[in-house]
Amino acid sequence: MRLLDRYLLRELLIPLAYCLIGFLIFWIVFNLFNELSELQKHQLDALDIAHYYLIRASADLWLVLPVALLLAMLYALTNHARHQELTAIRAAGVSLWRLAAPYLAVGILLSLALFALNELWVPNSAEMAEQILHRHLPSQRKPSAQQWEQNLGFINERAKRTWLIQAYDMAADIMIRPHIDWTLASGARRVINAEGAYRCNGVWIFTNVQELVFPPIPDALPTPNETNLLAMEEFSETPEQIESYIRIHKIRLDRFRDIRKAQFSISEILDYRRLHSKDASKRALLDTKLHGRLAAPWTCLVVVLIALPFGAASGRRNVFVGVASSISICFTYFVILQVALAVGSGGIVPPWLAAWAPNLLFAASAIALTWRVR
Q1: Separation in Å, CA 33 to CA 21, 38, 41, 132, 267
Q2: What is the pLDDT along the chain (374 residues), one digit of tens a residue?
Q3: Do 200 and 302 fall into the same domain?
Q4: Is residue 93 assigned to a domain?
Q5: Does 33 share its domain with 111?
């Protein structure tokens, strides 16, 4: 069976490579025509433009790869069926599910690759693309105002620590006039008022500090202390946690565009839920995003299941039927996916159901159709 598996893989991977490269070229050319004047305005050279679109294209690979895989699967299976190869293979005693083993393996591997890409690369891709877009602009023309967050309130519920920051530079991890208030394990309350703070070697360093320690006694006077520099190694809050807090709180639940464009890694969502367990305002949104992160990569495996009954039963139909079928299937799938994520983010249906329903629906339908082909 190894010879058959190698043959089927070769006949799949070649059109998959063509489809993936073709989709990416079409996507880049389309966007390049729309954004060419903007790229020239930002003084990007050819290498910068290539780097810019490499990052943007990799961020959208979760959308392009399943479509390319479905089209390649339908093309390969339709070709096999037209030349009666599937009939000969099945007549030799090979079941349709055994024949599909190399396709399922490809679907699983691509799903795992997409999962790693979505978790490690996609959440920061928009920021990286913006940095490339503005790298050649003079300092006075760069959108530096967007790096500062004014009047930031950050609460670490797990450590019972409240941060009030007059201004926070998200690019340099610098705070202006931070105020930190928290309760110690002994019951004493500690307050820090500083002129500024910065991050150094994983530790928050506060400058020109006024510190107050309230003993765990009602109406007791605090013990004051002043120092020029204060390193707080016990503070577990990281710049990444603060920045994800800022981005999550900027999402408006009444704007579908904000909900759809919001990209968070699983670790960011879990960190936020751990630090802000009592914040119920965006719980449905974050739970839906979390399950969506887990469910999205498995689209590659689902499209393999979808392609099996459509391709294996295609007979002598034209190859272009596969193109029409893939477009229709993908359009239907992504419409259902967006609607499901929207109602899940709004708390109308359970988040896990909203995220997994499209995959479960299409996978179950595909398995039922494949069983009928057998």
Answers
A1: 18, 10, 14, 18, 36
A2: 688 889 999 999 999 999 899 888 888 888 888 888 878 787 788 888 888 888 888 777 878 888 889 889 888 888 888 888 888 888 888 888 888 899 999 999 999 998 988 887 777 777 777 778 777 766 544 544 457 888 888 888 888 899 999 999 887 889 999 999 998 888 889 999 999 999 998 899 999 999 999 988 877 788 899 999 999 998 989 888 888 888 887 777 666 666 666 677 888 888 888 777 777 777 888 888 889 888 988 999 998 998 888 777 655 555 566 567 667 777 888 888 888 888 887 788 898 999 999 999 999 988 888 887 65
A3: no
A4: yes
A5: yes
Q: Which domain holds residue 114?
A: 2-134+293-373
**Sign of CA pseudo-dihedral 331, 322, 69, 362:** positive
Closest to 178 (Cα-Cα) out of 168, 190, 188:
168
- Does 120 share its domain with 166? no
Strands 203-214 and 223-232: antiparallel
**362 neighbors 306 (Cβ within 8 angstroms):** yes
Residue 273 in any domain: the answer is no
Domain-embedded: residue 255? no
pTM of the model as a whole? 0.75
- Which residue is it, tokens 């390969």? 76
- Rounded-to-5 percentages of helix, strand, coil across the chain: 60, 15, 20
The reply to whether 143 falls in a domain is no
**Shared-domain flag, residues 9 and 76:** yes
Q: Tell me: do 12 and 119 sit in the same domain.
A: yes
For the chain, what is the domain count?
A: 2
